[in-house]
Amino acid sequence: MAQVTVTLDANLAIDAMLLSGTKNPQDAVELVLRDYLARGRRTGTRTGDPADDRRLTRSRPTDQQG
Fold first, then answer.
1. What is the pTM (predicted TM-score) of this model?
2. For the chain, which ranges sit under pLDDT 50?
3. Which sequence spans correspond to the domains of the chain?
């Protein structure tokens, strides 16, 4: 797997380490990023996409006038 080097502010790296419970900043950022991506996929699954709009919208009968 290819690796990328990213420069972060020390406070941001420390926050990521505290959030993930790791002692290595690289592991912390990786865990936080993986969690963020997984959460995005879960949210997309729950909310659907624009193509799901037709499936979720109930067709209502039109009101008769007159």
1. 0.55
2. none
3. 10-45
